[in-house]
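We read letters as residues; the integers encode the fold. Take this protein.
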Amino acid sequence: MTADVADQPTGAGETLAAEEIIAMRERIDEIDQAIIDLWLERARISQAVGKTRMASGGTRLVLSREREIVERFREALGPDGTQIALMILRAGRGPL
């Protein structure tokens, strides 16, 4: 076992498995960063939409749009999708 692999707690009993786990974890970390970056970008855009809508005399929220988003996430991800969508929407508009 190399020092690098041995130094990382993977729970694997073999060097090859530990190396595979490390590689997969690196990809997970990359995906996590992409999710974080996209979450922040989406929140900024959503806030800009809300400001533009309100500045033009419109409403703070468009509930039909929010329902569409929640449904899209629920269809794609099941029950957890609803909760994820609600968190994403809250990040973009703030609490109600």
